[in-house]
């Protein structure tokens, strides 16, 4: 049943999740047609769906549904599935299939949605000197390793565009999970080139402070001379700011942040905000204030998403609001080649146009942001513009991060193509291959074969 409105009672609000099992009970959902509810059910059986009472009651403007950006961000949308996939699941549900059959059909569809873009599974698994493979970590760029705590494979709500979706739908063998923080510490100590560890998930801020603390304390206790920065990738500020202000572990969480900064390490919350609406409530403003008071920096990032934020004005306002609140705009991403990319994806040339139109509207303090950037197999590739070079219109690109650090900041050019949405769609403008292709193939030939299979 629905929780009473919890926001103005003076008591700490508790999170109430909405998923496939109970979303039909929401009064707000009654305004939709039965057909729309059925469509949500069809899509929600294939892609992960979770909303919560803060998202539903404070972020979504139900008068603007189905166009409201946060509604599109969190509730399943019919066109997120291609027609044939949609029909396949719709028919399965109409036939009244049992749970096992529905799950089997769902998995069959999911496997056709490129669940592991950019060679995530095979290319980036680190190995300890003793040969142990660390499936809970990724090390793609020299300075920064990613750590996926096994306890953070979920979020306070799910973003419909999310490329981490295979982790949320019980495809267990695809879960990156590692309980052992000493393996993480071991790896970082074996790799003096690592200065940053980035906790990710899911959302690490889903963990209770007591559990998160065990990972952080392992790092602090090890006193690793090379470790300078701990980053936490999180959407908790947008989806559940109470984590930092009123939850029963809020004080402990902030205390932990203070312990990190007090040790002279840089602590960065890599905060995901997709729309300025997420910065507008008193709760999120409070949360940003108390997090910053611990000496933590908040850097922000988001993909550019059709139906949600494909508008320069939305980005300009979001960056301005972030700067006003003391956050540092960091990345604009191009949406990945997985899941519902056909629904959320935006062409590279249009992405660049939106980026530029937004960027030119903000002061220098908002121009810390970089993008639009694709996290592709060879690295993070930024679309720089569409200049005319040697009499020919091209797409100018550069690496912001590369598997080989020497690739970074070298301009290169692709044939102008308004339809291209990802690096794989682009052809070199002046040569027969891009400068990094041979090296990528030879360095990762074994892994490339795996990726294709
Ligand atoms: C983006 C990213 C990082 C961090 O890169 P920065 O440019 O330092 O923020 C690290 N690892 C992977 C796999 C990434 O995609
Ligand atoms: S909060 Fe991050 S990991 Fe979680 S669903 Fe959204 S994008 Fe994915």
TrEMBL record:
Entry keyword set: 4Fe-4S, Iron, Iron-sulfur, Metal-binding, Pyridoxal phosphate, S-adenosyl-L-methionine
Gene3D superfamilies hit by this protein: Aldolase class I (3.20.20.70)
Keyword Ribonucleoprotein appears in the UniProt entry: no
InterPro entries: Aldolase_TIM, Lys_aminomutase/Glu_NH3_mut, rSAM, rSAM_sf
Domain of life per record: Eukaryota
Reported cofactor(s): pyridoxal 5'-phosphate
Keyword flag Zinc: no
Example of a GO MF term: 4 iron, 4 sulfur cluster binding
Name under which the protein is recorded: L-lysine 2,3-aminomutase aq_1632
